[in-house]
Amino acid sequence: MDKIAVGGGLPKNVVDIDASPAENLKNLAKAKGAQLSELQVCILQRPRHDELIAKVRETGARIMLIGDGDVSGIIATSQPDSGVDIYIGTGGAPEGVLAAAALQCIGGQMQGRLLFRNDDEKKRAAKAGIKDLNRKYEMNDLAHGDVMFAATGVTNGAMLKGVRRFAGGAVTHSVVMRSKSGTVRTIEATHNFKRKPLAEG
Fold first, then answer.
1. Do 71 and 155 fall within a single domain?
2. pLDDT for the residue 45
3. Which of 54, 55, 145, 175 sits most deeply, having the most CB atoms within 10 A of its CB?
């Protein structure tokens, strides 16, 4: 899926997946009352993004390259302390839905478009009921209603700490969000592997 996302508090449709990186960044800078050089663009570091990275650099905007986890990169657009103003790039379609769910909870805008590598993938999409293979999906198309988002870190990342093991147990770091209330809960849990589950009594 091709994706573009920004945080909350911005004019509707301030960016558009069909616009060029230069046009999107110019519109975003104007909406934020910032210079292009003050914007930071989060992009997944992959060879397929080399041309995109070059186009963003031409605008003078700063770039934050991430090795993996475009869900956390998209969520970062809605976290003021992350320094990320916009996410642009391609990645997994399921991750696009997850990211849209999170933005529904914390605020933001996102658009996505499915990308197909071959005819087999197009046939699978048709079997799933997708008629317009070039459709531009808005955030509400990807995730709507009373949305809940939950994630637990496996390895250390920008959003969550990874699992930390100790003798007889582990510590996990999770986040739970709800769109209806806008509540965001972070949970650090200690798991005791030596204790038997209650069902085993």
1. no
2. 94
3. 175
